[in-house]
Amino acid sequence: MSLNLRNVCIIAHVDHGKTTLVDHLLRQSGTFAAHQSTTDRVMDSGDLERERGITILAKNTSIMVGDTKVNVVDTPGHADFGGEVERIMGMVDGALLLVDAAEGPLPQTRFVLQKALAKGHKIILVINKVDRPECSDGRRIKEVVNSAFDLFLELGATEEQADFPIVYATARQGWCTTNFDEIRDYLDKKKTGSLEPLFKLIVDTVPTPKILPGNDFQMMISNLSYSDYVGRLGIGRVMSGSVKKNQKLVRQGITYDPTGHEKSVNENFTVTQVMTYMGLKQTDVPELVAGDIGVIAGNENFSIGDTIGSNSALAPLPRIYVEKPTLAMLFSVNTSPLSGQEGEAIQSRKLRERLLKEVRHNVALRFEESETSDQFRVLGRGELQFAILIEQMRREGFEFMVGKPIVLYQFNADGSRLEPMEQAVLDLPEEFASDVTRIFQERKGTLTKYEGQHNDIGKPRVRLEFEIPSRGLLGIRSRYLTATRGEGLFSSLLLDYAPHKGDIPHRMNGALISDRSGDTVEYALLSLEERGVLFFGPGHKVYEGMIIGEHAKDNDLNVNPCKEKKLTNIRAASAEFLVTLAGIRDMSLEKSLEWIDEDEWIEVTPENIRIRKKILQGNLRSVKRSERIQ
Predict the structure, then answer these.
(1) Are residues 539 and 567 in the same domain?
(2) pLDDT tens for residues 168-201?
(3) Which of 163, 171, 230, 526 is the most buried (most CB within 10 A)?
């Protein structure tokens, strides 16, 4: 049995239209019947993906173009989910590079494209959103094409890779063209189009899958899923041979000994189910053949990077390699006085199991035990990656605590510290450039590029590029959005490790800390307003050691937010005026991660996000910053 196959992924920055393009590829290829109703962004299946408008997990689908089956992998566009990107590059033979016609190539575009070029993949450049007002005269589109070509050369593309075909598209309207001069006709409705030119390019440009010599079955597990009926599912590309149901196979994986060293393991099992992708569904097939992307069941120990084969004598395929994490975060059992009142107060065993489950599915995350039995360290790429994990666990009904994200250092032979450096690319109105430059320079950022952007509509914009330590980016996003009044775009990419840049100021203010348990009272909060900024109003449960606001000075201040007004039988000479709180700072999960210091926890429950001190008793902790932050 043989198939006419093509395997492609879609590379794009966040919000450049990647998932929308997949929607129209599915519709126009006949994947959905005429009577089927579909939601927009069908590939963003998770609640968090739909809410945030980003792709977090790599997903598979397939379309039929004539007699050719095209497997399409929708990849994340954010560098925090780079582990998802790196592990699927071995599943495909080509890529669609989707670039916004006005914004051009951005850091995450660069990050994923570099991986694709290194694998030798053939790239098709898709210039999307050519209907944007900034592109009305076509000049910006040509500038973006030139920028993309420069990026290919900068990333070491071969001569063949740099000779890429170009498609101009508006994915939202479901049309594209390979002829630049036809764009205006499509925009003016003089012509109606479809994605047919893109279908043809995929079939003609992307090579057929490379198949390893020999008839022995080998498959690399690149993703995992789960079925209530057959258990764990291994998803990957068949590198050679074929497999049928009830066939005997061997899993070549790794395990770890008590000292943490890798140890290879071979495990025999019988295949209980064989599936492939037909549209968005996993469909049973009699046989899975070389080159196809499919799903097999029969082993509960499938792990990403395992090689599944028919012969244990064959060497396993090279294991998936993911770049090392740059941040660490401490997860802890919830020890607050309100523990268990709003969710499931999990024990350390269950917290450990949940984090290990996440690490098994996401190769970009790592798990470490800590010195304390009820605390565990998770290592990852960025704040957003941690925030997504925390939000997922919170929605599962768990209560737990997390600490401040900590940057992971490396050390030279002489003992000097090296820290991760990132390239931050900012797109913002020109009038805010000086304020933003000052903010980034305070965080040890070095301005490496300043360029004006062609824009005939609205405010003139500029693009700034900084080289900045990863720890300098912690907490900077909200300040940046405030400085640009919400009009700035922000993205970053890990560069390399460099010598430590010195101290970076974090939060200079102390905290307002409740000195007792109870419910907050408006009378008490009104008297505390002049002391700083409050995080919530009256009627909230608090406990000793819980942070209720930010102090106006650099030291912590223990306060009583539960004090009620004493009633007397003497009337005031003047009438009492209605007084309300001036303003409350709403502390979301992301804002809390940016705000906390090393001696504080974020308490996460399904209903609330609270900030507290690690030491609750006021008489056991210092209020001076120099003594509490080492």
Answers:
(1) yes
(2) 999 888 889 999 998 888 888 888 888 899 999 9
(3) 171
